[in-house]
Amino acid sequence: MEANTRGTGRLPAAFLTPGSSSFLDFLEAHRPELIPGRQRLPEGVIEAPHGTTIVAAIFDGGVVLAGDRRATMGNVIAQRDMEKVFPADEYSAVGVAGTAGLAIEMVRMFQLELEHYEKIEGAVLSLEGKANRLTAMIRGNLGMAMQGLAVVPMFAGYDVDLGRGRIFTYDVTGGRSEERGFAATGSGSVFARGSMKKLHRENLTAQQASTMVVQALYDAADDDSATGGPDLARKIFPIVSLITEDGFRRLTDAEVTEIAVAITDQRLTQPNGPQAPLL
Q1: Using an 8 Å Cβ cutoff, are 237 and 261 in contact?
Q2: What is the per-residue pLDDT across 74-132, written as a single tens digit (0 to 9) for each?
Q3: Per residue in 64-95, is it b (16+ CB within 10 Å) or e — as a string?
Q4: Cβ-based burial of 260 (10 A; exposed 0-12, middle 13-18, buried ≥19)
Q5: Is 52 in the active site?
Q6: Which residue in the list 5, 8, 17, 52 is annotated as catalytic?
Q7: Tens of pLDDT, residues 122-137
Q8: Using one digit for the tens of pLDDT, what is the confidence trace for 179-215?
Q9: Contact, 94 vs 134, CB < 8 A?
Q10: What is the rounded radius of gyration, in angstroms, for the C-alpha atoms of the chain?
């Protein structure tokens, strides 16, 4: 006869039985309703805040991942200081565009997935393996994406086996692509990518790459109303994170402020930003 564990403070035996190293598979077996893509939605159109533009660039020694701070709901600014870039683990990070609430929930689930794997297996997933795990989570949200509640993350990290930074982008079905040099996703991605296409080059330093991604976000905000540029009045600036062989590091407010103020000052005389040579 199965023991009753209610009120005893003990976990059910199923929770203590070794099984898959995937936290997502564990939820699938025991609490599938907690998986974001399994939630039931009401009928009709749903208005929800959406995050916008995420950019990344590889530099000599790692990768930089950055995001603007604006969330929109239709033509309204829903939030001016949303955080869209998060550490996934010590050597990787994820930036999110799309439905804000689901995106944050997916990030938290992804963080738990990586932590769960490390505790069960006693080893850290390769960067490629982490990117594959995120693919499965995005695919699990396809039903909501078809109802207009898409989440489109960008994953970046330092590959300790290869000794370099790498960037992965996704579509709403979980389709994954590895990007070379730089990448952008979200509503302002077309403008951000065009900016970085002219500014990116080999052997950038971390400081130069950080400046480049803030320039790209400025250009995206210049042409896309859903992307927020540096807000000097409110002191709201993009989130910029570096991942190197030393691990994940988010630039301090003072560091990002210095970059953003320098760029804004330059734009007073050069509204279109740095000029690339014709040849």
Answers
A1: no
A2: 889 999 999 999 999 999 999 999 888 888 989 999 999 999 888 888 888 999 999 99
A3: bbbbbbbbbeeeeebeeebbbbbbbbebbbbb
A4: buried
A5: yes
A6: 52
A7: 888 999 999 999 998 8
A8: 999 999 999 999 999 999 999 998 999 999 999 999 9
A9: yes
A10: 20
